[in-house]
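Honest question from a wet-lab person: if I give you the sequences of every part of a complex, can you actually get the arrangement of the whole thing, not just the pieces? Trying it with mine:
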Amino acid sequence: MKLSIKMILANAIALMLGLAAASPILVPNFALTTKVQIEVDIIYAYFGVQEFNRNVTGLWRNLSDFWENDIRLVSYFIVLNVTNRSDRLALLKEFEVSAAQEILVHNGTEIIGSEKLAKQITVSPISGESFGVAKENPILTDLRDLSRFYPGWSQYWPSNTSRLIGFTGMVEVPNIPYAALENGTIYLFGEAIGQPYGGGSLSRGFSLKYVQLLVIEKEFLYNTALSENQLLRIDSNGIDVYIETRR
Amino acid sequence: MPSDEELEGTTLKVYLYVFQEGKPVGPRDVMRGAILSSPSVAYRHLQKLETLGLLQRNTYGEYVVKEKASIKGHLWIGRNLVPRLLFYSFFFIGILSAEIAIVMIRSFVNEPLQTEFIFLIFITIVATGLFLSKGIILLLRTKTS
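Yes, you can. This is the full assembly:
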């Protein structure tokens, strides 16, 4: 039996029908080839040891007690400057900040950050834009998943625009990371994850800095954003931060 | 319309020969073309096909196709009899091509594949393999006929 043109045509039609049947799952995947470029910069970090008197139930620490004297309550305020460097509208979904004595970022081939950690760990290859973050003696890690609707906050990042994202909170810091804080030199890490509006693959932007903190008794400050006559304002949504000039 | 049981083996072989020749044939032609042992064997099957209403005799005593037989699980493409399973396999090859394209796109942009999707690909591969292998076996069987 020789293969006739009619038979080839019939098989081609069957093939096309198969492709058409699978198109509902194929077509949305084409959108994954589009990406946005996200740029992150850590512009401000404040750490302050909170001291409470014994009348404040729950927060007061008895420093003469063995089980309570090795931790300090430290409040923090860290600000990321997040920029959408692409020419399309972006949806920003996740933000993360970390502070630690040592931080290292690697993508399997390139290593950025702590030389001490670089000597200690073995990194395995990571494909694409993903990267791994290794920390030693962490002071804090704060992750914000804003992939769903968050009242009063907009995920939408127009092309080539920047917004300041603030992280506030309070953490218990053990002795060793606190010593790094007192010493005034720590690593700061910030990350933002987003994707193009209307579909596309996730993109990451990050910033890793080894910073010298300004130590003011039990307060520690890193500031590249504000001059003396400026102040930071936190939006009522608790996420957006604005710089204002004092009146 | 003959039943599928009646149109199989040598009878099917004879019918396909007459159909593909597209012109009146005698028992000797059929014996040579369908590689049968004798003209009488060819004649017996030609008569059977005539009784089934698929062939008819012309004024010269030669046989021509009267009606295109419907063979279970097969389609007529021109003068060729092709197993339906072969078309089903091409349909699944189409789906598999789309799934492979998705795997390539997602690996290119470093997006993970869901377990359900991997299972779906597995099912498609199995379905394609089964339809294609069975289709080719039937095609070869028809070709031999």
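Two things worth pointing out. The helical segments of chain B are 9-21, 27-33, 39-51, 84-108, 115-144. Chain B has two domains: 9-65, 74-144.
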